[in-house]
UniProtKB/TrEMBL annotation:
It is found in: Endomembrane system. Keywords: Glycoprotein, Glycosyltransferase, Membrane, Signal, Signal-anchor, Transferase, Transmembrane, Transmembrane helix. It comes from Aquilegia coerulea (Rocky mountain columbine). This is Hexosyltransferase. PANTHER family: GALACTURONOSYLTRANSFERASE-LIKE 3-RELATED, GLYCOSYLTRANSFERASE 8 DOMAIN-CONTAINING PROTEIN. Its EC number is 2.4.1.-. One of its GO terms (molecular function) is glycosyltransferase activity. Residues 1-21 form the signal peptide. InterPro entries: Glyco_trans_8 (IPR002495), Glycosyltrans_8_dom-fam (IPR050748), Nucleotide-diphossugar_trans (IPR029044). It holds the Pfam family Glyco_transf_8. Pathway: Glycan metabolism; pectin biosynthesis.
Length: 335
């Protein structure tokens, strides 16, 4: 390789680094700093009062994640008791700086999730977003978080709370590993294909239990029981079977249904008013489920920040907008 060619490559690389740093700085300035939230006088402190919340974090859904964190803090009676555990695959420096500048008083930790853990186990689903390795990180929370954390609330990045998260945290799981709102009126058979239902080797998984659909975007998890029961390995087993036989179409959800459906501690539906993103194909607008609301979840294809930016929002997107910390302008995307 000639000296001149080497010099050109070096200059191009330096220009790329400079440009990336500039873009990062510009985009960091697009988020407003959230106010400081303080405990009320009735709050106690210490390990027994701490609430642990896990969320994934990436640049594609960053705007939704920040809105979610803001909503949790805003409605918490004891916000200083919250510890956030962010799971991410890359862009650590940029995302860390974004959290610091947006929430200067937030108690949080970062954990690196190695996408190679699941890349070979992922089979294509009906939506590209469902195939991203980070979408499977919830399976590995018990491995990623320290052993002294025995309980966690997992939240997706496309939701907001309008109630005190402490109410969800205090739910008694009993002997259950996982708690979530269940939807037994949903047609459970649609989550698996004909090959699955025609093979007793697969349907044996639901023997002696009455499985109901639940959404994995909101889960209260007993990490101590999870670790003791080797549930990460049980979920991985079904991912390997899916890779070989193709028994479902919906990303990381079906393994959870196969392992936990019928064994979930049911939680009030108010804690996951899901499906507000519309169906997975067209993203059509949807209304709230009947009953009270503590959490709104834009699961599905349509995301409120994208619909608001395109000037084609759904009616319920107006409920997400007050928690948007983003200034005008377009956000960078994951590579």
């Amino acid at each position: 390789m000639s000296t001149s060619y080497t010099l050109i490559l070096f200059l191009l690389f330096k220009l790329l680094l400079t440009t990336s740093a500039t873009i990062s700085t510009i985009n960091l300035s697009k988020f407003s700093e959230a106010p400081a939230f303080q405990n009320n006088i009735k709050c106690t402190t210490g390990p027994a009062s701490t609430i642990h919340i896990a969320m994934t974090l990436d640049t594609t859904y960053l705007r939704g994640s920040l809105a979610g964190v803001f909503s949790i803090l805003r409605h918490s009676s004891c916000p200083e008791n919250l510890i956030f555990h962010f799971i991410l695959t890359h862009n650590h420096r940029l995302l860390h700086q974004t959290i610091l500048t947006t929430f200067p008083y937030l108690n949080f930790h970062f954990y690196h999730f190695n996408p190679n853990l699941v890349r070979s186990k992922i089979s294509f689903s009906i939506r590209r977003a469902l195939d991203q390795p980070l979408n499977y990180a919830r399976i590995y929370l018990a491995n990623l978080l320290p052993d002294n954390i025995h309980r966690i609330i997992y939240f997706d990045s496309d939701l907001i709370l309008v109630d005190d998260v402490a109410k969800l945290w205090k739910i008694n799981l009993g002997n259950h590993v996982l708690g979530a709102p269940e939807y037994c009126q949903a047609n459970f058979t649609t989550y698996f294909n004909e090959l699955f239902w025609s093979n007793p080797m697969f349907t044996e998984a639901f023997k002696d239990r009455k499985p109901c659909y639940f959404n994995t975007g909101v889960m209260v998890i007993d990490l101590w029981r999870w670790r003791r029961g080797w549930f990460t390995e049980k979920l991985e087993k079904w991912m390997k079977i899916q890779k070989k036989y193709r028994i479902y179409e919906l990303g990381s959800l079906p393994p959870f249904l196969l392992v936990f459906a019928g064994k979930v501690k049911g939680i009030e539906h108010r804690w996951n008013q899901h499906g507000l993103g519309g169906d997975n194909l067209q993203g059509l607008c949807r209304d709230l489920h009947p009953g009270p609301v503590s959490l709104l979840h834009w699961s599905g294809k349509g995301k409120p920040w994208l619909r608001l930016d395109s000037k084609r929002p759904c009616p319920l997107d107006s409920l997400w907008k007050p928690y948007d910390l983003r200034h005008d302008g377009s956000l960078f995307l994951d590579s």
